[in-house]
Amino acid sequence: MRIAQIAPLDEAVPPALYGGTERVVSYLTEALVGLGHDVTLFASGDSHTRAHLEAGWPHSLRFDPSVCDSLAPHLVMLERVRRRAPEFDVLHFHLGYLPFPVFSQLDTPFLTTLHGRLDLPELRSVFDVFPRAPVVSISDSQRAPLRYANWIDTVYHGVPASLLTPLPHVQPTYLAFLGRISPEKRADRAIEIAARAGMPIRIAAKVDRADEAYFRSVIEPLLAQPHVEFLGEINETEKPGFLSGARALLFPIDWPEPFGLAMIEAMACGTPVIAFNRGSTPEVVEHGVSGYIVDDVDGAVRAVAQLDALSRSRVREQFEYRFTSRTMALRYLDLYTRLARVHQPPLLRAVAGGGHNGILGP
């Protein structure tokens, strides 16, 4: 198939450091290329891919201080996609609702994977206006605030099977926190859980500009405790060692997490996850197999004491079975095929479908 992947311009694809959506777009793009498809990636010019790269902006916006209005580069990129739309069998957007007004009017089939939180009241009006825009959720729980949207499927994120692997020579000795410092991610809870469990904790996390005040006032004072080590952001090559050396990844979130890429990154390294029962966590973590799902700090402390009951090799097996980028790509390919079939002219659609004019659905 001729597939266009359209990524946010905030980070390169893949990002040099933190960047969940752009990282997933990279994994998906490379898996599709590996499966033999003709893929064009619309992304920042400093991206790296085996697909055809169409630079939507010369540099990722995070590293381009000259850009004050981030919407402008995205609109420029969307116009470039529109002009080339007939070249593709399907357009796959990762830009939220931005494509809806223009691409709902074109003949080229498109879909949008919604990567963020949807419990924002202003989003309801968008989906009221565009009720037929085809969207994909990254967990079933993500759909809750917008159950009436045109959901065509849920596709879980995936990571290349060989990218993050267990390092058997590394002895797990600490608890880990990976991702981003923000009020909803609750690094403060992770620090408390480690202290009460009598274990050291290592924190590998980005501090966004928007969260700097929170970091300075709430998190930074906690970093002086002797059991805490703050590493800042780490890259892909550092993750296997960081996660393999952890007894568990702590994921004590305080928001409806749409997916939580850090959880499957830990699982790829054979590291169990102790996650609060919010958002997607019951869909990602199999309680008692790949980790523990808990309701509060007390439950997390008890879970730390039960880590020896879990098999790290079985945690890795769960990752391989459910969360590789190949599995993700195959799920999306099924959606692409279904969309392309629905958008065929009536006669061709009847032939392709054996005479049945089915509608696209989950």
UniProtKB/TrEMBL annotation:
Domain of life: Bacteria
Matching Pfam families: Glyco_transf_4, Glycos_transf_1
Keyword Transferase: yes
Keywords for this protein: Transferase
Biological source species: Paraburkholderia steynii
Residues annotated as domain Glycosyl transferase family: 171-307
GO MF terms, alphabetically ordered: glycosyltransferase activity
Gene3D superfamilies: Glycogen Phosphorylase B (3.40.50.2000)
Domain Glycosyltransferase subfamily 4-like N-terminal: 18-119
Official protein name in the record: Glycosyl transferase
Entry-linked InterPro entries: Glyco_trans_1, Glyco_trans_4-like_N
CDD domains with a match to the protein in the record: GT4_AviGT4-like
